[in-house]
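Practice problem: predict the structure.
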Amino acid sequence: MANIKKQLKFDDVRMRGFKKRSTVNVVLEWLEQQGGKLSSQVISLHQANGRMLALDVVSQVNIPGFPRSMMDGYALIAADTQGASAYNQLPLQVVGKSLPGQGANVKVRTGTAVKIMTGAPIPDGANAVLPVEKVEVDGDSIFVMENVAEGRNIARIGEDISKGQTILHRNRILRPQDIGLLASIGLDKVSVIRQPQVRIVATGNELLSAGNNPDDYRIVNSNGPMLEALAIRDGGHVVSSKIVADDEQSIREALLEDCDILMISGGTSVGEEDLVPLLLAEEGELVFHGVAMRPSRSAGVGVIGSKLIFLIPGNPVACLCAYDFFSGRYLRKLAGKNTEWPYISVLRKLDKKLVSMVGRTDYVRVRLLSDNKVEPLAISGAGILSSTTEADGFAVVPDDSEGYEQDTEIEVFLYDQNGVA
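Answer:
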């Protein structure tokens, strides 16, 4: 630490960004240009939901692989039903039964039918299926009450998927129904883009790990668990989440650990113990430090090799804000997800004036009111984490605005992923 403190006397890199903070849009534009393609990996279908396909998927089979019934009824020859009606019932003899996975070891001939279940193979000779509700049953005979066209209610070979067909394209984010489709063609594994590897570091001699009670002048690390949950939500694989002391060696070692994204919370401002920006500048490049926003003005971004490092303020609300604006957006980009806010949004009118300042982006916690309006709770108070749990969501006041008058309709992003009733 002696070397770092000596450096502070001559050239404090941290103050360069703080003297003229970058705008949110400048940081976002830079992030948009970063990040190469991640390598692929083969995983089980059971783990594939939400992951990005690395390759096109081409079916090696027909689905269905045999003509099958699309409903419960009777497989028959369509010509045998011509002229049938409730008043002109035509008799057919039932000569067998076709069940899913078994079929019927008989051939349908003129004047006969085979009872068949949905998904069961069409017996030889049959060319249509008449629904069960369109017949009257009398022992081993049925009386047809409606005519049916040839091919009706039969799924043809390859009707769903044909052999050689590309059923899903690379870069697709897999949904549950996609998993079912892949399983239907016989796959149990799939090639996907690997998840971004994320490390989370909380700095501070005062921090205790989760599970401990705050004691004397020490506090529990809340940012680490919160960032871990956010990173998992946004498609990252959290390799580690830990606390490191406010000393040069520990922070330097954390900065140099292998990953795609490092999020380091605390030690990011310009105080005596805020060593992260200095060490990042030594080991790589401190691209941004200090952003014109509230909260999170001490946020920053840097690079060591191909790894992006996000400097996240230690105050809990500022931590959440910096993640949502910067780290989360970049993580979602690497994971192949939509980079926009991962929140449902609604339009609501303000119940009172919301004041901001031109040149600064504000992240405003808000509460939804019963009269379909929205109440601003706070812009400041970056250390009050409970303000985010009490809030229903947040609004963003852009840097070209002085705020909004009462009754202005604004967009509100809801923390609850299920929205509101």
